[in-house]
Amino acid sequence: MNNLTMQNLNRKTMQYLINNISVGMSLKEIKDMCEKYMLENGADSFWYWNVGALIFSGDETTMSISGKRYKVANRIITNNDIITIDLSPQNNKYWGDFARTIIIENSKVINDINNIQNQEWKNGLLMEKYLHERLI
């Protein structure tokens, strides 16, 4: 077990979520799904205030909140929604940290930034991609 193992678990968890998320799910259901998947696939705990997945949607995606104060919002995923997910699995002393934004338009997850119709969301993700490439 090492930090790379936890990062790979993050990637697998996110892909699992993308394949299984649907309109009408609550943020709590998404949080529980992520945490259950991580615990069943290598995590033994969550390093960030024992919260395995911070989930935000809609206008709450611009918020920054400590895991110490985090409470999953009582929200339901809609036909056109933006969702941010921040994962924090741990196994023994090894941990991972992984955040992604998921766009849902016309009830479907949009995997290609270029296919996003909402210009504000598209511009935000293009800027994030640019900054990530520059900073690496």
From TrEMBL:
Protein name stated in the entry: Peptidase M24 domain-containing protein
UniProt-listed InterPro entries: Creatinase/aminopeptidase-like (IPR036005), Pept_M24 (IPR000994)
Domain Peptidase M24: from-to ranges: 8-106
Domain of life: Bacteria
Classification of source organism: Bacteria, Bacillati, Bacillota, Erysipelotrichia, Erysipelotrichales
Gene3D superfamilies: Creatinase/methionine aminopeptidase superfamily
Organism: Coprobacillus cateniformis
